[in-house]
Amino acid sequence: MFKDAEEVSTAAAAFLSAEFVGKALTYLIEEIGLEPGEVAEVPLGSSRVGGLPDLPKGAEWPTGPGGMPYAFIAQINLAELRDAVGDASGLPESAHNATRLQQVR
Fold first, then answer.
1. Do 13 and 58 share a structural domain?
2. Are residue 73 and residue 53 in the same domain, yes or no?
3. Tens of pLDDT, residues 58-85
4. Cα dihedral 4, 8, 13, 19 sign
C-alpha cells in the first residue's frame, strides 16, 4: 500500500505517462487496511473483526426470518479509528453518536 497520492504517483511514473498518471490519480480513494494479528484478549469496547460483539446487558442479538441470528462482522471503536488514521474528518466526533445496528440481507 501507498501512504499518499504522491507516493502512488512516483511509483506509477516509472511505468506510465505523466498524463495517464494524472488522470488515474483522480480515481484514487482512501481506505483502511486490515492485517491479521495474534489472537489476544480485547478490552471491552475495542475494535474487532469477527468473534462476538460487545452488547449492553440484556440486549439481544438481532435475528432474521426463522429466528436465525444475523452474522457479526465487525465492531469499530471510532476513537481508535480516529487515532489510527489521523485526519478522519468524515467520522462523527463521538462514537456514542455513531452507534448504529445495520442489518444487511
1. no
2. yes
3. 988 888 889 998 888 888 888 887 777 7
4. negative
Pair 52, 80 in one domain: yes
pTM for this prediction: 0.51
Q: Are strands 74-75 and 48-49 parallel, antiparallel or unpaired?
A: antiparallel
Calpha distance 9→25 (Å, rounded)? 7
> CA-CA distance, 24 to 19, in Å (whole number)?
9
Total count of domains within the chain: 2
Cell numbers at 37, concatenated = 494479528
With contact defined as beta carbons under 8 Å apart, do 71 and 50 qualify? no
- Domain containing 66: what range? 39-102
Q: What secondary structure does DSSP assign to 19-70, as a single string?
A: HHHHHHHTT----------------TT--EESS-----TT----B-GGGPBP
